[in-house]
Amino acid sequence: MAPSPTGPLHVGNARTALYNFLFARRQGGVFILRIDDTDLERSTAEDEAYIFDGFQWLGLGWDEGPFRQSERLDIYKEHAARLLAEGHAYRCYCTPEELAEERRLAEAEKRPYRYSRRCLSNPPPGRDSFTVRLQMPETRLSIEDLIRGTVSWDTALIGDPVIVKSDGWPVYNFASPLDDALMKVTHVIRAEEHLSNTPVQIVLLDFLGYARPEGYAHLPWVLAPDRTKLSKRRHRVLLTQFRDAGYLPEAVVNYLALLGWNPGTEEEIFTLEELVARFDLARVQKAGAIFDQDKLDWINGIWIRRLPVEELARRLAPFLVELDEATLKRAAPALQERLRTLVDARELLTYLWERPGPPELDPESAERLRSAAAALRDTDWTPGAIEAALERLREEHGWTRNQLFKPIRSAVAGGNSPPIHDTLALLNKQEALDRMLRAVA
RNA sequence: GGCCCCGUCGUCUAGUGGACCAGGACGCAGCCCUCUCAAGGCUGAGAUCGCGGGUUCGAAUCCCGCCGGGGCUACCA
Q: In A200-344, at which residue ranges do the beta strands (DSSP E only) sit?
């Protein structure tokens, strides 16, 4: 896996990373993390930190690395020199303006643009700034893509690509396949946008005498609801955003795995380990998939319910900073089947740190509330005792649960809250009784 | 423009010539359960399989054409 630190990790990168991880583990192979940071302008340390962070959060541990391309310049220089010496590449002294002019002309004449190769035969003299271009051969190439099957190209149709920029740094199409070969990468699993880059990379490998990867797999896009590319501005796409919004890494992994892949059975809920056991590139989808927040929410709810309660309490802590650990532990069981995200808990428990406004009560409700307060005064402050006391009271008067609980809830919590005995027990006893009495005062 | 990829319910998908007048899941609607909110159970609506030809006794599945979307065509990755 070789992400570029040119922006925070988003769900598309994360899914590519996941599929790489699953494939590597499934094969019993080695999962390598390489940082493709040859674009010095756009790469930042902050974005690199996001990558480590994101991988860690999702539980995608790498076996080797991280390697950084920015630390391997000598290797690229050496290989570029070899290509030059062996006549597979040449220096190009054309200025960006000249190239733009060539391109403009081709467009005006409605012919497909390809670099003219001027510098191959007679470079303009007296210039010292140059790029290195790969001299594309005229041949037919094909790969067996693990997802798409046979894909082939006529390399004569591809213009000589720049492989070394005038600042001496290699471009992606040079550094990436070269490093793959040097690092003995067997399978290149990456986003669909790279499919068209493959022939250039193969030509390069062939010239250098390095073996082509055993397999390629080009993954389909992850799209926004309008089928456009995900945008950081308009959509929630950053891993950190999901974490902050109360999503579990288990759920994100599970959902991402299903976004473009299925096990061929009707099962949908998987741990990382279970995914490793089932994953198969041949079952990856070819078409782009829209990221569906609703389905993620559903899966997140399932994973919340699968957590041991103590663990749920721990994960809830950052989202309920108003509450102490003991309260969290007591609240967790009642919360568990009511949450789709961890932040949902705030809505149900706000009453614990904020007094609700005075409820509107009809005379009968007020009377029931008064009775409840009286009955509860001498009750042990545990959910079980409270429930028993209220049930006794209810039977005594022939009230329905709704008749009795509704006024209590509105006096104590205001809006929605956990089952009434939990709602009460979680609150300090005196405070709960005060709220009830204040409502009927 | 050239080359390449893609196209099944709103969404994720099953489907590789007959068991498909297309199955599952999310979402949606209704019912049940129920102290609010959920969770859970049941039922339902929802796809002329992008379009048009062809092959075949038979096509979502094979072939051809078209349309639509996307990528590459950068001294980004």
A: 215-219, 222-223, 289-290
Instruction: Give the global pTM.
Output: 0.95
pLDDT of amino acid A295:
97
Catalytic choice (A232, A286, A406, A429): A232
> What CATH number does the domain located at A309-352 have?
1.10.8
Say if residues A239 and A54 touch (Cβ distance below 8 Å): yes
Closest-lying nucleotide for A92 based on CA to C1': B75
CATH number of A73-219: 3.40.50.620
Q: What is the pLDDT of residue A7?
A: 85
Q: Buried b vs exposed e over A302-313: b needs ≥16 C-beta within 10 Å?
A: bbbeebeeeebb
CA A429 to CA A435: how far, in whole Å? 10
Alpha-carbon separation of residue A341 from A65, A75, A302, A418 (angstroms): 34, 47, 10, 16
Domain ranges within chain A, ordered by starting residue: 73-219, 309-352, 363-439
* A312-329 mean pLDDT: 97
Note the pLDDT tens digit of each residue in A260-293: 999 999 999 999 999 999 999 999 999 999 999 9
- The ipTM value here is 0.95
Residues A106, A112 contacting (CB under 8 angstroms): yes
Q: Which nucleotide is nearest to A421 (CA to C1')?
A: B35
Specify the CATH architecture of the domain A363-439: Orthogonal Bundle (1.10)
- Phi–psi pair at A256, nearest 5 degrees: -60, -35
